[in-house]
Every structure is written in structure tokens, then in C-alpha cells.
Amino acid sequence: MGDTNDYFSSYAVVAVLLLIGIAIFAGALLANRMLRPSHPTPDKLLTYECGVDPVGEGWAQSQIRYYVFTYLYVVFAVDAVFLFPWATVFAAPGFGLTTLVEMFVFLAFIALGILYAYRKRVLTWT
């Protein structure tokens, strides 16, 4: 029974710290709301971007291929994130061949994604 109490008391510490963090965050937001000046005018409530007054409607179409470029960037970023830890483990004794095979499997999946993007003509600038 003593082990169970120790187990749940560790969660109680986490819960108390979480509540303290939420209280600090809520207190900062409340202090900000109470201390800031608030003088709304029609000019202040006007939507703008980069200091330029809006012209026309706010709705615009964008091409789906830009999202695909974003996904390709994420693929390359994830690839780079996994390459650095792999390079550090590769030098460790006993991990050489295993990590080499794992990296080639990982790079094969990345290459398949790039090949798919190429076949769908995502990588062309036309």
C-alpha cells in the first residue's frame, strides 16, 4: 500500500506544479488586461497588413502546390533532424553496421517521397 501512495504522490506534485503554472499564466493575462490602455477607435479596429490599408475583399485564392512545397520542406527538415543524431551514434562502437542499414532504409523512404513528388510534377516550376 505504501508504494501506491508514493506513486500517486508523485502525480500530485506534477498536478500542483501544473496548477501553479496555470495560475501564473492566468494572473499575467489578467494583469495585462487590467493595466493596458484601451481606447478603441474606428482606425484602430480597421484590419491592416504591414501598415497598408486594405483594398478590395479579404478573400483570395491560393494554389494548392504551395502547400505541397511546404510539405516537401517538412520532409527535408525531418530528414536533417534525423541525420544529426544518426551521425553521433554511427561513431559509437558496436552501432556502425546497424545504424548504417537503418539510415539507408530511412533514406529509401525519403527517396520514395521525392520520387512520388517528382512523378506528380510537384518539383517543376511551370
Automatic annotation (TrEMBL):
Pfam families: Oxidored_q4
TM spans (from-to): 12-31, 66-89, 95-118
Class in the EC hierarchy, top level: translocase
This protein's UniProt keywords: Membrane, NAD, Quinone, Transmembrane, Transmembrane helix, Transport
Compartment annotation: Cell membrane; Membrane
Assigned EC number: 7.1.1.-
Topological type in the membrane: Multi-pass membrane protein
UniProt keyword Transport present: yes
InterPro entries in UniProt: NADH_UbQ/plastoQ_OxRdtase_su3, NDAH_ubi_oxred_su3_sf
Catalytic reactions of this protein: a quinone + NADH + 5 H(+)(in) = a quinol + NAD(+) + 4 H(+)(out)
Protein family: Belongs to the complex I subunit 3 family.
PANTHER family noted in UniProt: NADH-UBIQUINONE OXIDOREDUCTASE CHAIN 3
Biological function: NDH-1 shuttles electrons from NADH, via FMN and iron-sulfur (Fe-S) centers, to quinones in the respiratory chain.
Protein name per the record: NADH-quinone oxidoreductase subunit
Organism: Sphaerisporangium aureirubrum
